[in-house]
Design brief:
The protein has a domain of 92 residues: Ubiquitin-like (UB roll) (Roll), CATH 3.10.20. The chain contains 2 helices and 8 strands. Homodimer.
């Protein structure tokens, strides 16, 4: 039934990197990891579900923050070892720092500079133990 999962080249930990990209703008929102179960559930539920390495459990994006990623399309790269999720980011915030994207720093003159503002204070989104997504 899930033969498509057998085509993926999982790493030695049984994971594959997954890039979430805005389905309308093409902006890369974040990168996380997926295992076989999380990818199968993502396809079945049409929402991003990742594998949290730090917590050692499934992570339904937005389960604490409300910032759910609604799935529009799944893509697999040519080497079958990276997934791209084309998503609608509900609430407009993908990053646990309260920003639209996790990629908010730019290298300028040998220094990483923050170039995007926080849209919502993480303290208003998460309790202290939930800030590690």
């Amino acid at each position: 039934m899930n033969d498509w999962l057998d085509e993926i080249r999982w790493n030695e930990d049984g994971l594959v990197p997954a890039i979430a990209q805005d389905h309308q703008t093409g902006r890369i929102l974040m990168m996380a990891w997926m295992n076989r179960e999380s990818l199968a559930l993502t396809a079945a539920e049409n929402r991003a579900i990742y594998w949290s390495r730090s917590r050692g459990k499934l992570w339904r994006k937005g389960e604490e923050s409300g910032h759910v990623q609604k799935l529009h399309e799944l893509r697999l790269d040519c080497d079958a070892d990276v997934i791209v999720l084309m998503v609608e980011q509900l609430g407009g915030i993908a990053c646990h720092t309260g920003r639209e994207s996790c990629f908010y720093r730019v290298l300028e003159d040998g220094t990483w500079k923050t170039v995007e503002a926080v849209l919502k204070d993480p303290a208003a989104i998460y309790s202290a133990e939930q800030r590690h997504d």
